[in-house]
From TrEMBL:
This is Branched-chain amino acid transport system permease protein. Pfam families: BPD_transp_2. Keywords: Amino-acid transport, Cell membrane, Membrane, Transmembrane, Transmembrane helix, Transport. It is found in: Cell membrane. It comes from Roseococcus suduntuyensis. It is a multi-pass membrane protein. One of its GO terms (molecular function) is transmembrane transporter activity. The chain crosses the membrane at residues 6-29, 60-83, 95-116, 136-157, 185-209, 215-232, 239-257, 263-287.
Amino acid sequence: MDAFLLQLAAGIATGGIYASVALAIVMIYQATHHVNFAQGEMATLSTFIALTFIQAGFPYWVAFGATLAVSFVMGALVERLIMRPVQHAPILTHVGVYIGMLLIIGNLTGWVFGYTTKVFPSPFEGGGPMFGGLLSAHQLGSVGVTLGVLVLVYLFFTKTSLGLAMRAAAYNPRSARLVGIRVDVMLALGWGLAAAIGSVAGMMVAPIVFLDPNMMLGILLYAFAGALLGGIDNPPGAVAGGFLVGVLENLAGAYIVGTELKLSVALIIIIGVLVLKPSGLFGRVVFSRV
């Protein structure tokens, strides 16, 4: 029973990371109806930038805030300089651009910061195991940070005029333009916000898996599975899906497939959702008349 609780608690902790990346994926999907395959590489680059700030002598939380700002600007620039010129192009063009971004950002990160594995500090290192040894201080702290970010994002989109304008631009760009909302600006802000949220996931997972240019490859797959499971068009559902995938991954790895084949759990979830319930657990089914 203790081993089961340990795997369950660890799954919730890693699920918080998947939830952050899943939320970023859904935010881009809602605005463009495309999946940003480079989301993980953007988060990895942001984490290397955070490490640079820390090594330069900045306190951790100052570096954390500065990285969020840099990531936000980076995401907005990606939308403005790379995605906007091809916004009316065929879908295969977008897929090619996303794959190109994945390769370019990943290799650029390795070229600038090196391919050696680096240790990323945790702001929660001072504490020991908690809840009877079920969670480490960093795991508990990362869940708290992730949930705090998610709550802030929820309040932003439901309680502020800018957040409501971004939601309107994502759901119905044509109607949003008719009421005076600058859809292009909202789209750039959405990309920036998604990049900032992804950077939080990168900074929280780096102390666990160590930092290298390929750090987020597997995590992006789990996050995509979580987004599909919860509902690719439903941000709260994607968050719930991310936590659920984290729990399923840990339990399946411990009791069914083994740690070497844990990545197959994400693939099984993706295929199962697409075949059995494409809208996800909390997504909405859209009917269109043709």
